[in-house]
Amino acid sequence: MVQTEQVQDKLKSALKDIFGYSQFRGNQEAIIRNLMNGRNTFVIMPTGAGKSLCYQLPAVVMPGTAIVISPLIALMKNQVDQLNALGVNAQFLNSTLTKSELNRVKKETLSGQVKLLYVAPESLTKDENIAFLKDAQISFVAVDEAHCISEWGHDFRPEYRRIKTVVDQIGNFPIIALTATATPKVQADIQKNLHMEQADVFKSSFNRANLHYEVRPKIDAQKQLIRFIKNHKGKSGIVYCLSRKKVEEIAELLCVNDIKALPYHAGLDAEVRMKNQDAFLNEDVDVIVATIAFGMGIDKPDVRFVVHYDTPKSLEGYYQETGRAGRDGLEGYCLMFYSPEDISKLEKFNKDKSVTERENAKLLLQEMAAYAESSVCRRRQLLHYFGEAYNESLCQEGGGCDNCNLPKEKCFEAKEWLLMLLQTVEATGQRFGTDHLVHILRGTTEQYVISYGHEKLPTFKKGESLSEQEWKSIVRQAMLYGYLNKDVENPLHLKISEKGYAFMERPVSVTFVKDHDYTGAEAEPLAEDSDNAMLGGAYDETLYEMLRSLRKKIAKQKNLPPYVIFQEPSLEEMATTYPTTIQELAQVNGVGLSKAQKFGEPFVKMIAEYVAENDITTAADVVVKSTVNKSKTKIFIIQQIDRKVDLEEIAEAKNLTLAELIEEIEHICYAGTKLNLDYYIDQMLEPEVQEIIYDYFLNAETDSIKVAMQALENEFTEEELRLMRIKFLSEMGL
After folding, report:
1. Please, what is the average pLDDT of the chain?
2. Largest CA distance in the chain
3. Burial (CB count within 10 angstroms: exposed 0-12, middle 13-18, buried 19+), residue 50
4. Cα distances (Å, whole numbers) of residue 67 to 61, 101, 166, 167, 492
5. Under 8 Å between Cβ of 449 and 440
6. Which residue has better confidence, 535 or 92?
7. β-pairing, 116-119 with 175-179?
8. 432 pLDDT above the threshold of 50
9. Which CATH code fits 532-622?
């Protein structure tokens, strides 16, 4: 249908009067015109670029009802609420509706009152709904979050694969498919499944110039998280975790550390989920801690930060979730905590999947790990993943990334290695992926290398001086810089590009960078905190020595070993977090309220004076308080010991080894709580033996068990010494 001038006027009028915009953004107008002309339309547009308007506006202007297929109830509710607030009759059709509500929605749809009907794919396939929709006047079908169709994408939903079949049963309508994340492979899969190979494709840039990307090693992550959020005090943010249990744990952690936060995951009652979501949208809380389902389609423009506490399952998922920050075009900070162990855990979760699903999931995880470990510009990597060429100035002009803002001295000349790689790709017929190529270059005699006769290639074993990880990094960078391309039909196969062939003909100097090494990595300061002592980083050595001198003085006055007052790690934490009140000091590991009240006054006074003189951030901003669950365990142990229950029985009740229980008891004791273990120790050790060990700790310079065993010539077991140290500290430290 050719659009008339009258329709165009109606379109612009609705844009202004209903949605409040005076002009279209990017490809919006072209997309809407294409759809209204009855053309199948495929839209690839990043989060925050106005994707929803591309089907909401034509639905309002065109006669009839637009079917919007959406994967999540939360997404439907959010968009329906927004449209209703704008005066547009939008409804959803899902399992949350009562029978009377369902009948009302159907009646209004059949009468033409409903402009947009949101339907879950599961609801769409029900026979009664298919019959009902056949009788309605349908303007078009919108498939939102279309990446759910593809097994190669994240959030794969098998129900999405049936959409085209069901739509064909209802009638013949134009389809608009929309997604914020789609690699070339996923794009092809979506179009094939929806029979949209001939659809007009509108692809916007994936670059979000206002977002800053950072990846940090997952060391002391809870402390880093608290500090990060407190540095964004009063701002809205999302913390993503992979499990419901972790969501609850982190939400509780934030709350006990005076951060307004709520959990969101599928295990909560629907009413609670909606309540928590609304609290976040209405700014009653600052932070929502959620599984990945939260935020899909949530239109909150002022989310200032997105934190991935756990490593995501795919780069597509990561990109979409980070895209929920800064949708208003202002600053957005995207922080991810990364650990190779997270990748290993995720791989284990995939073991029960089919072979194809397992291989796909493995590939996605490998790409996720490569992104995290690479020292190349994060923005370059993300845009390349989605098939977009990189503009050298994008990262510097926009929010930037940790790799660009904090460049590492890791550059190396890669000309020889790149040439060797490209020669290997060519010699193997461009039919293999990274692992096979690396095995050849390193000279690994794997069976499949031998079966292809690739041990006879000129480059076999020529690159053995580089590790497997170093070679994989070179392969990734060869792709990032355009020397190699993935085969669209089979992403596991690598092909040489025109640029790669040109390089092979005339090799020139090429600079690559070494990856980050997260094996045993230590947490580095966040960029905005580089001037201050950080949790997980080095403590303030000047203050630490002052505190040690004070401890020694007080210990001498009280005729106690210094470690009875406060342990070395406790002093280090004081010199990191700067507690200036007894309450803050009580939160330091190994202190506790009792010990803080008994010994703490001169310490907090010294720290307060030091802080004032040096203008330092105090513990109120950085101390991490324990959560209730840990406290419950400690309370249980204290109660059982008061009842004189054998330690073996207590350990069994809490599923702990005896060594783990003793460690818990030590933490309780060092925090200043007196525990009487005489009933247990007297069964194990004769009075004379107890006296020898007790006298040792009374005169020792350190409470180290290792030193004690050497000094006592290994006459006693570690367990015996640890129990006697607890007895000594309980009696002498209070």
Report:
1. 84
2. 104
3. buried
4. 14, 18, 12, 10, 37
5. yes
6. 92
7. unpaired
8. yes
9. 1.10.150.80
Exposed e or buried b per residue across 24-37, where buried means at least 16 C-beta atoms within 10 angstroms of its C-beta = beebbbebbbbbbe
Q: Which CATH superfamily is domain 211-405 in?
A: P-loop containing nucleotide triphosphate hydrolases (3.40.50.300)
Per-residue pLDDT tens for 318-329?
Answer: 998 998 898 888
Cα–Cα distance between 427 and 558 in angstroms, integer?
A: 79
The per-residue pLDDT for 120 is 86
283 near 312, Cβ under 8 Å?
no
Q: Which CATH architecture has domain 628-732?
A: Orthogonal Bundle (1.10)
Q: Supply 53's token pair.
A: 């308007």
The CA-based angle 155-73-168, given to 5 degrees, is 75
**Residue 524: which region, alpha, beta or left (left: phi > 0; alpha: psi -120 to 50)?**
beta
Dihedral angle, C-alpha 681, 684, 687, 689, nearest 10 °: -110
Any idea what the Cα angle at residue 508 is, between residues 505 and 512, rounded to 5°?
Answer: 120
The encoded tokens of residue 347 equal: 């791989």
Which candidate, 41, 17, 18, 14, places its Cα nearest to that of 30?
41
- Centroid of chain to Cα 56: 31
Interval 130-140: pLDDT, tens: 999 999 999 99
Which range has highest mean pLDDT (206-210, 280-284, 428-432)? 428-432
Taking residue 12's Cβ as centre, other Cβ atoms within 10 Å add up to 17
The pTM assigned to this predicted structure is 0.62
Task: Determine the CATH number of domain 411-513.
Answer: 1.10.10.10
DSSP per position, 201-251: EEE-----TTEEEEEEE-SSHHHHHHHHHHTTTT-EEEEE-SSHHHHHHHH
- Which amino acid belongs to residue 376? V
Distance, CA of 238 to CA of 101 (rounded, Å): 33
498: exposed, middle or buried (C-beta count within 10 Å: 0-12, 13-18, 19+)? exposed
Nearest Cα residue to 663 out of 721, 722, 608, 705: 722
Taken in order 28, 185, 380, 236, the sign of the CA dihedral is positive
Distance from C-alpha of 503 to C-alpha of 416, rounded to nearest angstrom: 11
Q: Cα–Cα distance between 507 and 418 in angstroms, integer?
A: 9
CB 378 within 8 A of CB 402: yes
Cα separation, 11 vs 19, whole angstroms = 11
